[in-house]
Amino acid sequence: METSLTLKGVSWRHKVRDASSWKPWAKKDGPGIHSIDLEIQKGTILGLIGPNGAGKTTLMRAICGLYDCEGFDKSCTSRRTGIGYMPEQIRWEGRVSVRSSLQTISLMRDEDIDLDGIIETVGLSSKSEHFLDDLSQGMRQRLSLACALIGEPKILVMDEPLNGLDPLAQRAFCNLLKSLSSKGVAVVISSHQVSDLESFVDRIALLHHGQLLAEGTLPSIRQNLGLKDSAGIVEMICSVTGIEPEDVSLELSNDDLLPFKQHGGEEE
Amino acid sequence: MSAFNLGWHIMKERLLAGRMLVIWPLLAMFILFSSWGLSDPKANLPTGLVIDSAYDVMFASTAFIIFSATMGAVLISFDGISRDRLSGVLEVKLSQPIQRSVYARALLIGHWCAIFVPVLILNLIGLVIIWYRMNELPSLEELFIHTLATGLLLLWYTSIQLLASSWAKDMGASIAVGLGIWMLFTLLWLVLTTLAAGLLGVGVENLNSTEYIRIEAIMDLFSPNGVYHHLLEMPLSDTDRGISPLTTSIAAVLWSILPLYLFIRRTERMLP
After folding, report:
1. Which domains are delineated in chain A?
2. Minimal Cα distance from A97: which residue of B?
């Protein structure tokens, strides 16, 4: 299958405040992603999964050129031309119309954009002249989706896109992604709605502590992790974090569950 | 895709923002009323400033521009980036295939035009008022210098405020930095000038002494408001504070380049 984007050894560490220093501006390397090798294939839907703090959003931002990662710098505008990004939960606000917001984004691209078509696709035709302040959360998610669709991207990167959508809109959203993928668009998606994700992703990338632990189709990952055929995404996460599914607690978001060194990554 | 097109769109959005309902009347009151009042032949100014030409009225009314328009620049630009960062919209914008330097220039053009256009319109109406009251208009050269200087002053404040907005992690910090800088240059600069004069052994009991005026003129080169006044003084034949037009021009260029360069550099390195 044709590859839309190849990531090779992509690493990024967030800078966090260094509490041990007397200087308030002192920063040190914090969590991030480590030597990620990943191929994003044309016409497939890749689901990024992992516990909170695994590095899903960081990886997505790196793909979209928001970080100066090794071999992947943000000044590369040509790569960004083919990518549409939908971040998690944007709070669109202000006395600006939906159309005007989309115009701002479209003016950042060097091409003619059919804004009406995009507005219609995401179901915002009746709201296109409404102010952002007047939109519901679901409508704001649709607007974020519309921004991602500007410029007919070859790769769609979507961080928790189903949040805030009602079940009907979620279904419509999944249908839209499937339709785009059938047209050759590669979709990278992360979602906490694991049951929905299982039903429509073609491949899964399992992240933990900023490392890519497994990547492939659901059956192949199950096999690699030694899980039953019925095992879902929760079981996969539990498997790599060493937690029994019945013992799952909020500690799952704890970054210290699995040391880096056990998976060959760099040690903190 | 050009910085101008995007900047023009940003300007239109900013001009329609709710805060313009406050900024427009404030600017109108300061600029139009000062033009009306100062062009009154019976006007008796407390500073002893003699007004006998249309340009003198425009020069004197710049004191009101400094108070209102620069504050307007701060109020328009304080959330130029910080609001987008807080809401998450900045992530979408930075992921677009536009060079960061072009985006920075577009932001600057948009926010600068959003304050400069209303000031320009009101200045032109002020000019009509002066003509009506004094039956006199400034020369084209004087008008050009006044417009250029006002445009530059607003550009400096806009770029400083956008820089603050890109640094700040929240809108409160952004407006605090912007207002702090505005207060420093608009209200506190006199204190710093007298402090500098005192440290250099110049008596501050007489603020009209030659030595003090010389120090004030030098200190003014380090303040946008001061450089603005130096620029405006260039056509005035009866005002000489010992600063050559070349020095003033160099200071104006530096004030234009430095914050702009820092802002573009900051935008290129900015993380969402």
Report:
1. 3-18+27-255 (3.40.50.300)
2. B13
